[in-house]
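Note to self: keep these together.
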Amino acid sequence: MKKIVLTGSAILALLVLVLLVTQSESPSSLPAQASPTPLVSESTPTQPVASTPTAPLATAPVVKPVNIAQLPSIPHDLLFLDQGNLVRWNHTTGQLETLSGNTTCYWASPDRRTVVLEIAKGGDLYEIALLDLASGAKTTLVETASRIIDLAISPDSQWVAYIQSETLPDEWHCRPDLVAFGIYPFSGPYPATIFSLHLGVSQGNESESPVEIGYCKEGEALGFCGRILWSPDSRSILWSDAEGVWSFELGASQAKLIIPQTLNQPDYFDNRVYYPWRWSPMGRYVLTTFQIFEGVTQVVLDTQTGKVAELPGTFTYGYPGSKPAWMADGRLFTIRPPLPSEYTDFPPAAIEIWRVDPQQPGMLVLENSILLDIAWEQIPTGDPAQLADGRLAFAILSRESGDDPARGLYFADPTSLAPRKVNPLPPSLSESFYFQSGIVWSPDGQGVILQDWSEYPMLLYAPTDGSAVYDLSLVIQGCCFTWLR
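Structure:
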């Protein structure tokens, strides 16, 4: 792939843009008309892929503003932060319920039964507490004067691991699941300490102290010490710092270096910096952002061998690259976005399924691909997902002010990959909306929260049945949305 070199002013402008991201541990398009004409140009392997006929949908949605007395029906409860409160949108009662005040951040357990809260107690004191969402019972875990950069609850809900720093700026904000982390994982070069805490004793109302398991060394590059991950078996904790990517096994005496960082090389393009951000549900492999002098790409990191494999089409700088998401069986679902017409040597837009095979030289095998008839600035967002029933889900956004037929929410069959549009979306107004917007899919795919935190903010609830889209901005001034099950 050819190197793309931008000027220093362009780099500075991009960094400023990226650091505006406020939120928070996952795209194709069809014409909206009822025509059965496929959006697909070609498929790989060679067998033909039939398009899924699309029900008649308007190319521009009906957007309805809502007020506190007339919230739309949603399929599941929804958690979010709003002006210092942790709030639950109760889908049964249709009411907004304040669960905790003075809350600066929260992190949900994988089973969505508990959350860990960071609560401001006044002055420089913070309480780290465990909240049971069913009973409302709250248990204090730690009181501390240091803020938390990131925290994760183990899949078995027995442990917490977190990154804590004494040097975070006053304007530090919560981002429990930064949507754009896989694209630009910048969080600031802050030194930090890594802790683990066993929740079993704490849930029995007995005190237990956190155990220091590592130190996160700061560096000049942004992004170090910004993310902590649990392995699917709840045995390993992963993070990165200026020295490399580290793994700590429960019961071990010290962390193990999986892969070192390569910094300060005479040729900037020889630098190699890694930020792990999403573990495969099958274990062993981790989606990792790989940063060079300019731009980032996505690689798969083998935690057993330290080997990495680049996911094709994911290079991101002045334009977006592919956005990967793990599937339940350990394969990768990606959307390769379109590029401007001058990039004739780049592959066209496509939905792709990749399999990880350590026996293959490149470690990644393309299993299936379907080309998409979408144009530059019809951009798949960074949040494709596999739903609970196996369907693939993604969104296409664009700045086209007219009735762009490609823009909207989509489902795709995991076998044929043929996409089906399920609701249109309004236009995004920011020039870099693909770096400043996020989609949070409900587990069953009945609806999404779309948030654009650019200079032209939007907060929408969009169902996937073709009905109206709801503008929530008059009711919710929040962030950090999590669907419950």
